[in-house]
Design goal:
- It is a single chain.
- By secondary structure, the chain is of the alpha/beta class.
- Helix content is about 35%, strand content about 20%.
- The chain has helices at about 1-10, 35-50, 70-75, 85-90, 105-120, 140-150, 170-185, 200-210, 215, 240-245, 250-265, 275-285, 420, 430-440, 450-470, 485-495, and strands at about 20-30, 55-60, 95-100, 125-130, 155-165, 190-195, 225-230, 295-305, 330-340, 350-355, 360-370, 385-390, 395-400, 410-420, 475-480.
- α6 (about 140-150) links the parallel β4 and β5.
- The longest helix has 19 residues, at about 250-265.
- The chain is globular and about 80 Å long.
Length: about 500
């Protein structure tokens, strides 16, 4: 709780760790984009807010030969903190070690550096934290070297490791990776990060659902017609098309980010807020989801828009030099999932995600059923509860009200909670900042467990294998559009009703 209060208040009231604790946070892959754009800026934010343990030292590790100052020069343009004194003080906490990822020499040097820090500190309790900001191809050799050369196990020490997605390409490769990692570390030492689990409004789902009695009796198939989870980005994949083409939008976004949101939306009330209880319920709901088939999805691939306002928007996905001319990789997907349990049987959960679309948006839209007895001449639309994840974090409920004035007509309005209007002085932390703090504190609630990962891949693997074999060709859609038009009909047949008479006016 002290850490959460520190985020809200802007500074820690007292140290999270005792003065006898020595914390060494190592970023492996320190020269890469993820490290310079997300990890070091997040660590610096925590440092500026005085949330990092006062004894925390940071080590960057990568193959590149560079100095700590060169590492700072690469990372500083992405820092939220712009105060030079803060940046100078932060980088004094950082050192750099160069080494390979598959041989012992570099990791022996890394361990020597960690021991040097620990001896200079002289604390009784030692924490060694390792963040793998690395591609999956080197996960196993890096974990093996860490275990053999940098891991310590004693009553006065703790070691943990963060692993970035993707966690495999299908069920078999994910299981192979999980088996290799769990053979080296126990489950309490492994933190599989999905940054969407650190977003404010995704975290809010738990309290919204289980802390408000008004939702308890309506959160079921009797009252809810469908749930739509949407992710849209207004930019394409140009420059990273080669990487994206090996994965596609389903592996990149749907199988992880959106499925995690689905779990929190659909799971049963956990026994407590303990990490194991919450993750148990997520696994339970995943087990009720049937595997996806070809008929359960609509796929699209963006093409250049000749009327686009930017040069990028005039380029299609296959115009990227790294993408094959005959690529069938989807940049847009709309899927319908079914949860075959008592609460959700018959309720479609629709997930939509796409690149090069008309706006940046991520939201959860819970659409309720029609009123059973309509005395207003079909002028009342369905109620909807909308949780906007990004941008302009908000929760609003669409409802029918009387049109102001002399008439007795119904119109749509909303009950609106827009975060930046209601909580004006709150600085919402970045998802990585929050999850890195959880990792430091040893809180696993917002990280993915091994059995949870396996169930997620079970749902998507049959479909992905068919798509990899070319069983379905994505439909073209213009850069900057709403996506594939056929998806609207697909969603309508699933049970979603779009009235077109309402526009949200919040978040201004």
């Amino acid at each position: 709780m002290e850490a959460l209060e520190a985020i809200q208040n802007g500074a820690a009231s007292k140290p999270i760790f005792s003065k006898d604790s020595c914390v060494v946070f190592t970023v492996l892959g320190a020269s890469g984009d993820l490290a310079k754009k997300k990890i070091f800026p997040s660590l610096c934010n925590l440092f500026e807010k005085k949330i990092l343990p006062p004894t925390c030292q940071i080590i960057g590790y990568a193959r590149s030969s560079m100095t700590t100052q060169q590492l700072a020069d690469k990372s500083n343009p992405f820092m939220k903190a712009k105060n030079k004194d803060v940046l100078t003080a932060f980088w004094k906490q950082v050192s750099y070690v160069s080494g390979t990822y598959d041989t012992p020499d570099g990791f022996i040097k890394l361990n020597d550096k960690i021991e040097e820090i620990e001896k200079s500190h002289g604390g009784e309790k030692r924490f060694r934290l390792f963040y793998l900001a690395l591609p999956p191809a080197v996960f196993i050799p890096v974990c093996t070297q860490l275990k053999h050369n940098c891991w310590i196990q004693s009553s006065n020490s703790e070691c943990r490791v963060i692993v970035e997605k993707p966690f495999g390409r299908d069920l078999d490769s994910s299981n192979t990776l999980s088996q290799a990692i769990t053979a080296l570390f126990n489950e309490q030492e492994i933190y599989r990060i999905d940054h969407y689990l650190g977003k404010e409004m995704v975290l809010n789902l738990m309290i919204l659902r289980f802390g408000n009695e008004l939702f308890r009796s309506v959160w079921n198939r009797e009252r809810i017609a469908c749930v739509v989870i949407t992710f849209k980005e207004p930019f394409g994949t140009y420059g990273r098309g080669g990487y994206f083409d090996t994965n596609g939008i389903i592996r990149d976004v749907m199988q992880n980010h959106l499925l995690q949101i689905l779990c929190l939306t659909a799971m049963e009330r956990p026994v407590s807020v303990d990490a194991s209880d919450i993750r148990d319920e997520k696994v339970k709901v995943l087990k009720f989801i049937r595997p996806l088939e070809l008929d359960d999805v609509v796929l699209g691939q963006y093409v250049g828009n000749p009327n686009g306002s930017t040069e990028d928007s005039k380029l299609g996905y296959r115009d990227d030099p790294g993408v094959p001319n005959d690529s069938k990789t989807a940049t847009y997907a709309c899927a319908q999932l079914h949860i075959d349990n008592d609460r959700w049987a018959g309720v479609p959960f629709i997930m939509k995600c796409g690149k090069a679309m008309n706006e940046r948006k991520a939201e959860i839209r819970v659409q309720f059923r029609d009123t059973p007895s309509d005395i207003f001449g079909s002028k009342c639309q369905r109620n909807e509860l909308v949780i906007r994840v990004q941008p302009n974090e908000a929760v609003y409920c669409k409802m029918n009200v009387k049109t102001p004035g002399m008439s007795f007509e119904a119109e749509e309005s909303e009950l609106n909670l827009t975060y930046h209007e209601r909580f004006e002085d709150i600085d919402l932390p970045d998802a990585y900042e929050r999850l890195i703090l959880d990792f430091i504190l040893g809180t696993q609630t917002n990280f993915v467990r091994t059995d949870e990962l396996a169930e997620a891949w079970r749902i998507f693997t049959p479909l992905l294998h068919k798509l990899d074999a070319g069983a379905k060709t994505p439909v073209d859609y213009p850069y900057g559009s709403r996506g594939v038009q056929a998806a609207d009909e697909f969603i309508s047949k699933s049970g979603f009703k779009f009235s077109g008479t309402y526009k949200w006016k919040g978040g201004k």
